[in-house]
């Protein structure tokens, strides 16, 4: 009886651990998937005409505070920026509007000037598709694209201006 109880507890524990971690994507460039990013606040929106994509740039609390106060060059350590990318599409009922279509990927920049000193103070990560498959083709893919903005702490985005009511 006791051995059955112990077996059931062990089995339940294994199943819990298996299913609790099954939904978390693997690491990208050694960085764990940032849980809860879908609930972060918006820093800006951008549209790339070269590849017909729309992007929403989100930030964790540290990033939002820096963006709203204009303290983004450099961004403070602890900042996490998320760039969420969709292919653009037209809406059938609103043909003059561009709207998000197929989801492409979510990219992240993690600011830690000591930990990521070799990659310009940022950890670079990407998860691809709705399945959020880890992208692990090397951080040079990210950093080489960001060279034009190295004097802006490697960040393309200008935070959008939001109304401040007093």
UniProtKB/TrEMBL annotation:
The cross-references to Pfam families, in alphabetical order and at most eight, read:
Cytochrome_P460
Cytochrome P460 domain: from which residue to which, for each copy?
34-157
Instruction: Name the CDD domains for this protein.
Output: cyt_P460_Mc-like
Protein name, as recorded: Cytochrome P460
């Amino acid at each position: 009886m006791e051995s059955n109880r112990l077996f059931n507890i062990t089995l339940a524990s294994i199943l819990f651990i298996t299913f609790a971690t099954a939904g978390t994507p693997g690491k990208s460039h050694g960085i764990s998937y940032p849980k809860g990013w879908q609930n972060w606040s918006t820093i800006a929106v951008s549209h790339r005409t070269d590849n017909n994509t729309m992007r929403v740039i989100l930030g964790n609390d540290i990033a939002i505070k820096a963006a709203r106060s204009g303290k983004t060059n450099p961004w403070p350590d602890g900042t996490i920026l998320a760039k969420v990318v969709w292919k653009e599409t037209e809406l059938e009922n609103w043909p003059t509007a561009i709207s998000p279509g197929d989801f492409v990927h979510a990219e992240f920049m993690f600011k830690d000037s000591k930990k990521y000193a070799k990659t310009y103070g940022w950890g670079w990560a990407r998860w691809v598709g709705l399945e959020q498959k880890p992208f692990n083709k090397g951080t040079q893919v990210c950093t080489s694209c960001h060279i034009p903005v190295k004097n802006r702490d490697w960040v393309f985005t200008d935070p959008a201006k939001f109304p401040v009511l007093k």
